[in-house]
Design a protein that fits this description.
Helix content is 8%, strand content 45%. By secondary structure, it is mainly beta. The chain has one domain: Jelly Rolls (Sandwich), CATH 2.60.120.200. The strands form 7 sheets. Strands 8, 9, 12, 13, 14, 15, 19, 21, 22, 23, 24 and 29 form a 12-stranded antiparallel beta sheet that branches.
């Protein structure tokens, strides 16, 4: 919105800041700036909050168990419209059939098999973690598949907000069939698989049962490093720049199934190392993880 030729950066009603301005029922100005407005170029982005001001779609599509009806659920005040979600699933369970890609690249993550759809509502109540809506995987067969895979072979930057419900065994977070691409908790150990090579970053059993922000990054020099809540997990490891790392599933339901709560996953197929602190701060400011 402009005043003459000047952009308006803030609006006040008396001494109180106003976050939105409407002309009738049409929003004509907002103070909101999304994570992907500041840090552009994501290959795929899945969240239960709005990540980009230009994105006008929904967050998720939900199937309710009572009659298998489906409905898109969007955003209110830049986060999931939990009021509409709870109303749609009143008294029943709700399951995610589509997690929409907010990057603009159309990589929506979908699941048509009812038994393999992760859950978002339990008996009419929206599932939450730390006060924010969360997608819950059952540890049996839940998974969402992207309409097209993301090739992270050269460089990548992948932050994700996840809480594992396991106390032992193994837990996939992201998965790809090509090159055995995986991010996996193995007995609580944080493990990245690239072309069947294993890269471990923590000791066993220290990643279960707590909501964490995990950041996975590699650069053109072949350095791979993982951060947990903004702090490095162990030392950087060297990976061959030619090895395949291609992701196509959010969670996985075939072997070593996902058992936990996901709230946000963003995949950049480019270096974002200099932006890491800013991206992590933005995510933590919303989710209050650490």
């Amino acid at each position: 919105m402009k005043l003459g030729t000047n952009d308006i950066s803030s609006v006040y009603l008396g001494t109180n800041g106003v976050s939105k301005v409407y002309l009738g029922s049409t929003e004509v100005w907002s103070s909101f700036t999304g994570l992907l407005d500041t840090y552009t170029g994501a290959a795929a982005a899945y969240s239960l909050r709005l990540l980009r001001t230009a994105y006008t779609g929904s967050a998720i599509r939900v199937r309710r168990a009572s009659d298998n009806a489906e409905q898109n659920i969007g955003f209110v005040d830049n986060e999931l419209d939990t009021t509409s979600l709870a109303s749609f699933c009143s008294g029943t369970n709700g399951f995610v059939t589509t997690w929409y890609d907010q990057s603009g690249n159309g990589r929506n993550a979908t699941q048509t098999t009812a038994a393999s759809q992760p859950q978002i509502v339990s008996s009419g109540s929206v599932i939450t973690e730390n006060g924010k809506a969360a997608v819950q995987y059952d540890g049996v067969d839940d998974q969402l598949q992207m309409t097209s895979a993301v090739d992270l072979t050269d460089t990548f930057f992948v932050p994700l907000v996840y809480k594992s419900n396991r106390t032992s065994s193994e837990d996939y977070i992201l998965y790809g069939d090509v090159g055995a691409s995986r991010i996996r908790l193995y007995s609580g150990l944080y493990r990245v698989y690239i072309d069947n090579s294993t890269y471990d970053f923590t000791t066993a059993n220290d990643n279960f049962g707590t909501q964490y922000l995990f950041t996975n990054e590699s650069d053109s020099s072949g350095n791979l490093i993982v951060y947990r809540d903004g702090s490095a997990l162990g030392a950087a490891q060297s990976i061959p720049g030619t090895d395949n790392w291609i992701i196509e599933f959010i969670g996985y339901g075939s072997v070593r199934q996902t058992n936990g709560l996901l709230q946000e996953i963003i995949l950049w197929d480019s270096e974002q190392n200099t932006n890491r602190t800013g991206i992590e701060t933005n995510i933590n400011d919303f989710y209050s993880i650490y």
